[in-house]
Specification:
The protein is built from 1 helix and 3 strands. By secondary structure, the protein is mostly helical. The longest helix has 52 residues.
Length: 142
């Protein structure tokens, strides 16, 4: 019979191995982190763009049923509740008033007649002021 020597068993990691892993994780975060943040911030603009198109489409359905767009006084609320002067209204054209709020918590804006077309449905972006770039850019159905 052969005699075995007691070989010490390694349990755990050395400090050097842990530092290498932490350095790799740090590099990954430095490369991927800004891209993820950029993607998350632009998602609100993309959501607003899709929602503006949905509100515009709902307004066009209202026009087909009622024979006209909502007035500035009736506004986008005409897509959810029937205005007094629209007997042919067959809505609601949107499920609830939450659909009339942009991703930044501001109500979508409406103009009849619009500056860019028959009607304008738009949001002023994250800064809720005209103009801007990036997330603060105005988005509309034009």
């Amino acid at each position: 019979m052969k005699k075995r020597k007691n070989i010490p068993v390694r349990n755990g990691f050395t400090l050097l191995e842990l530092l290498v892993v932490l350095a790799i994780l740090g590099l990954l975060y430095a490369i991927v982190g800004p891209q993820v943040i950029k993607y998350l911030s632009s998602s609100k603009s993309e959501t607003a763009s899709v929602q503006v198109k949905n509100v515009d489409a709902a307004m066009k359905l209202l026009r087909l049923d009622a024979g006209r767009y909502a007035s500035n006084q009736e506004g986008l609320q005409a897509l959810v509740t029937q205005p007094a002067g629209m007997p042919n209204w067959r809505g609601p054209y949107l499920p609830n008033t939450a659909a009339l709020t942009d991703p930044w918590g501001n109500p979508y804006r409406f103009a009849n007649p619009g500056k860019h077309g028959e009607i304008d449905v738009y949001t002023l972006g994250s800064d809720n002021a005209e103009g801007g770039t990036g997330e603060a850019k105005d988005l509309g159905n034009w």
